[in-house]
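[Backbone geometry]
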Amino acid sequence: MSAPSLTPSKAARARHTQPPVDGPPQRGGAFGRSLKRNLTAHGFLIGAVLCFAFFSWYPMVREFFLAFQKTDQGEVSWVGLENLETVFNDPAFWQAWRNTALFTVLALVLGFAVPFVVAIVINELRHGKGYLRLLVYLPVMLPPVASVLLFKYLYDPGYGMLNEVFGFFGLPEQQWLQDPDLSMLSVVIASTWMNMGGAALIYLAALQGIPGELYEAAELDGAGLLRKIWHVTIPQTRLILSLMLLMQIIATMQVFVEPFLLTGGAGPEGSTTTVVYLIYQYAFNFNNYGAAAALGLLLLVLLAGFSAAYVKLSRAEDE
């Protein structure tokens, strides 16, 4: 009688060597990872929304209520349209709006056209584009106060460099910041130099996206430089031009830093008093926060109405 074999059979070896069969996939693990990922994303989103709500939405809502309130010795009371009546009856109100409109028009003539021309010139050059882009954008990187003080030095009637240049060419010296007829133009020139770098780079990026075949076809048709700009460059950059126009109007209507630092805010005979500077006066010089909020609300409504009308006209033109 033979002894039993100690070697396991092939079937037993196969059972021991087969990998364990996994059960159905665990939904809990995938759901947990998805939930963690969504909570993380929503956490970052909620933080951004809270910051935006606290620093942007709350001041706007607070300003709306403050425009119809009056604070007297710490007591807040509703006064209805009294703050608006105070603003409308102020002689400086209409002067501030006229000055703001004048600044906006002059800023559009210089600040809207000059960056576009600069971008076209840089785009036509074959060498040194990087250095020119840096040179054009350099004023934007400077602190606004430093830039304004630089122009205040240039405009000085005694030792200013601008009058020295005028004297070298035999031109009469000017009272740039002291003359009511020149003060606003001086502010516009300083503001254009300070802010044109960003617009010029945006225009340059739009110009580099225009297909070269369009310019070649225009040259074959006998178009010169000006005709190529009018019939090719401007139509191809119409969208970015219109967007920059809207943004510049909104920005120029809120000008404050340049006239405040160059001319003290009001300027000679109130020639540089703007709407935002008048808001500053109501709030911090007259301690009339209700009138300041009312004037700010008027400016907000005007800019919102202009933006809505612009968007509606743009959609109608696209259709």
About this structure: The mean pLDDT is 83. The longest strand covers residues 69-72. Residues 27-66 form the longest helix (40 residues).
